[in-house]
Amino acid sequence: MAQNHVLIVGSRKTKKLTIVKDIFGVSDFSSFLDKNAKSHTGLIISNGKIVCKYYTADVNIFVDEVQPTLESYNEWLVEFQSSQMKELRDSIQGIILTLRVEILSRHSDQFTQSLQHISDLLDSEYIEDHTGDNEFQWNGFKVVVGIMSEDSSRVDDSWLEKLEEKIPETGFDFVIKKGDSPFACDSCTASGSGDELKAIVQSTQWPEMRLINNKRGKSFKVSETTDEFVANFDEVLSSLHNAKNSASHISNEDEKSVYVKAKVAELLDKLNI
């Protein structure tokens, strides 16, 4: 089993399995889904895969399900911070929370506070476990995916703009998804397409990945790469992290999407040694 693990948490009909399909390339769920199960709680999908121009990686996806209320999400976030969940926190390289954005239209302070606490906890535990490695923060990704539905029309635009400011301040990226277009739609640049999620996932440095040397036309594990390639890759990840911070301050979603796509293309080009 691959050592790359991602946790996806959300209520029903918040596109959890759509993300598994679009981002991690899983098209057949028959061997993972229990037809008699009433929820996706505890679902483990072991054949996820990330394939891009610069590397490939096998990924296991853990899926958990909560009730479609803000209270249920808050309870899960508190539980995730418990000592009993440390083994899970240590094993994952990414966490994706999916929710209908209208549940955040009121009383979201506890939710954002919990996100901040989780970011701080992941950082502190990672630094503690990597003493002497000059690591200053957790190197995985954290994303809140806000699903816009017909009910989302009740969400005031000004409040949505506040969420787009508040959530990134916690260390979590905030991706808004409207409509039924795929998350991995390369041609989608409009606000709400959700295509930013693909860039976030692909910019992650996975524990196990096969980097592709384009000039030589072959792939190899990270442990087998040259020092030059590893140095370039680390530089890209550091630069991309800075670019994400810059993008969080762009209020216009269309401009932010264009900026992210351009920056990702520019930085990944550095890997073509």
UniProtKB/TrEMBL annotation:
Does this UniProt record's set of keywords contain tRNA processing? no
Keyword flag Hydrolase: no
According to the lineage, what is the superkingdom?
Eukaryota
Per the UniProt entry, what is one GO biological process? vesicle-mediated transport
| Gene Ontology molecular function: any one | protein-macromolecule adaptor activity
UniProt keyword list: Chromosomal rearrangement
Q: Which family does it belong to?
A: Belongs to the IRC6 family.
What's this protein's function? Involved in gross chromosomal rearrangements (GCRs) and telomere healing.
Q: What is this protein called?
A: Increased recombination centers protein 6
- Which species is this UniProt entry from? Dekkera bruxellensis
